From TrEMBL:
One GO term of the biological process aspect: asparaginyl-tRNA aminoacylation
Protein name (database record): asparagine--tRNA ligase
Superkingdom of source: Eukaryota
HAMAP family referenced in this protein's UniProt entry, alphabetically: Asn_tRNA_synth (MF_00534)
Top-level taxonomy: Eukaryota, Viridiplantae, Streptophyta, Embryophyta, Tracheophyta
NCBIfam families in the cross-refs: asnS, PRK03932.1
Aminoacyl-transfer RNA synthetases class-II family profile domain residues: 323-556
Length: 566
């Protein structure tokens, strides 16, 4: 029967009028290719298919004669209704939420009035992955996202998290497509770095000194350091072995005998050296001049997890002209807000022979492209988000994709906020020139004042990083932020400071050491060029697109203070 069914399935696949698409690397038909057809799968009625997935809900019917199962394989948000008769399997096991199934069956049209367009009548159960309902932590009832963070390994089985993953995947694909289509080269920048891009010092340190200190401490307990008496005894042995060699030479012994004695002498000398070195070992982290001696560390100097790939990718922009990096970044900030993670992903393009206006143009085009891509390619998941999470998310994506962004200077933004305060608007954070705009300020500009995305540019130099180009007024830098409704700041970027003397001065102003940035300064010493770039927080883009409130729910494995599961 199974062989006949496989043959019939292969034949069905070749039917060009209503073919059931088989997964290329899996012996099953993805549920997506059945229920997301324009006809909802009804055109496949009568076809045979093998499907696999996990039971979302299940119930027995007609006095336990058969069971209705809602099966999902993660290929889409929707489920395929599967009908299994009692003679095919133990229905009590199949109806449990979380059970995995692989079944062969025939696609049928359901009775009139049913929501689904097609259902699968099971001919044979191929596989059952059992679930103990008393222990399985994800019942079929809707669960709070906060609860699901305790089960990051199982939460992808929920409708919301699986939809988030597919949206995240679509945004990543759109990112690579956008930059590839515009001639950018993808550069993989290092995760371990010796440079602090932001100059804030909130970096995770990478070190083996602690591990080595713990090993040494344990070793010294098990094998104590040699005493002075031990070293003195070893030196006596060296003298004895030296005397043996001298006597053999005096007696004109054979070369073989003298050679053997010399070997023993060398062993004795090596032993003294080892004992002497071991006697100097001290428990704890090595220090020099009262400070930790990082020359003894794995990289011979202090090293950190990167907060940004920008500085490194600049070196490739100054050779290949247009490049970008897309990877994980880290921030050792003890923050528990809904918008902060210890590990997050950044998209960071860098463009040579370009200025701030080019940077803003690229950022606006990129954000518009991401929004349109979701509208074109993720309609099912976005409709789910609009139904369950944020009713305005699709309208918001459409507005951003179609609307020109407003562009105002930082000074103009402060003037608008000050005017709002005079007219009765209350902000928790005081408004004055020189402040870093707070989230409430950003949302006022995008959601109330303009009701569309806003790019704010030319910020005070005191609140921006050292590498941003100093403007002619010597008070502001050529920096820009892209602000969006609901999300606030989505992108931060700038024209980079290409003038050697100016950037050296800026580094010193911020109290940073020059030595770690000597390689970065070389880009200004040798063939300097105007260039610019920006960084998009990938998780913030997912937040903006989905309307989900907490950033911990839009990354597969969230890391934040106190939590680093798996």
């Amino acid at each position: 029967m199974a062989d006949d069914l496989t043959a019939q399935l292969a034949t069905a696949t070749l039917d060009s009028n209503a073919s059931v698409q088989r997964a290329q690397f899996s012996d099953r038909v993805p549920i997506k290719s059945i229920i997301l057809r324009p006809d909802g799968g009804s055109g496949l009625a009568g076809k045979l298919a093998r499907v696999g997935g996990w039971v979302k809900t299940g119930r027995k019917a007609d006095k336990d004669a058969f069971a209705f199962l809602e099966l999902n394989d993660g290929s889409c948000s929707g489920n395929l209704q599967v009908i299994v008769e009692a003679d095919k399997a133990d229905l009590g096991q199949l109806v449990l939420t979380g059970t995995s199934l692989v079944v062969d069956g025939v696609l049928k049209l359901p009775p009139d009035g049913k929501k689904q367009k097609v259902e699968l009548r099971v001919e044979k159960v191929i596989h059952v992955g059992l679930v103990d309902p008393s222990k399985y932590p994800l019942p079929k009832t809707r669960l709070p996202l906060e609860f699901l963070r305790d089960y990051v390994h199982l939460r992808p089985r929920t409708n919301t998290i699986s939809a988030v993953l597919r949206i995240r995947d679509a945004l990543a694909y759109a990112t690579h497509t956008f930059f590839h289509d515009h001639g950018f080269r993808y550069v993989q920048t290092p995760i371990i770095t010796t440079s602090d891009c932001e100059g804030a010092g909130e970096m995770f340190q990478v070190t083996t000194l602690i591990n080595e200190a713990e090993k040494l401490e344990k070793d010294l307990i098990e094998n104590p350091s040699p005493s002075e008496a031990d070293i003195e005894a070893a030196n006596l042995i060296v003298k004895e072995r030296g005397s043996d060699v001298a006597q053999l030479k005096s007696a004109k012994a054979s070369k073989q005998e003298i050679g053997a004695a010399v070997v023993e002498l060398q062993k004795a000398k090596d032993n003294v050296v080892k004992l002497d070195e071991r006697s100097k070992l001290q428990p704890g982290i090595p220090r020099k001049d009262g400070k930790i001696d990082y020359t003894k560390d794995s990289f011979g100097r202090q090293a950190f997890l990167t907060v940004s790939g920008q500085l490194q990718v600049e070196s490739y922009a100054c050779s290949l002209s247009t490049v970008y990096t897309f990877g994980p970044t880290f921030r050792a900030e003890n923050s528990h807000t809904s918008r902060h993670l210890a590990e997050f992903w950044m998209v960071e393009p860098e463009i040579a022979f370009a200025e701030l206006e080019d940077d803003m143009n690229c950022a606006e085009a990129y954000v518009k492209y991401l929004c349109q891509s979701l509208l074109d390619n993720c309609s099912e998941d976005m409709e789910f988000m609009a139904d369950k999470i944020d009713k305005s998310c699709i309208d918001r994506l459409t507005m951003v994709a179609k609307t020109p962004f407003v562009r105002i200077t930082y000074t103009e933004a402060v003037e608008l906020l000050t005017e709002a305060v005079k007219n009765g608007k209350k902000f928790e954070n005081h408004v004055e020139w020189g402040i870093d705009l707070a989230s409430e300020h950003e949302r006022y500009l995008t959601e109330v004042r303009f009701q569309k995305p806003v790019i704010v540019y030319n910020y005070p130099k005191g609140i921006k990083a050292f590498y941003m180009r100093l403007n002619d007024d010597s008070k502001t830098v050529a920096a820009m932020d892209v602000l969006v409704p609901k999300g606030g700041e989505l992108i931060g970027g700038s024209q980079r400071e290409e003038r050697y003397d100016v950037i050296v001065s800026r580094i010193k102003e911020m109290g940073l050491p020059l030595e770690p940035y000597e390689w970065y300064l070389d880009l200004r010493r040798y063939g300097t060029v105007k260039h610019c770039g920006f960084g998009l927080g990938f998780e913030r883009m997912v937040l903006f697109a989905t309307g989900i409130d907490n950033i911990r729910d839009v990354i597969p494995f969230p890391r934040y203070p106190g939590r680093a599961d798996l």
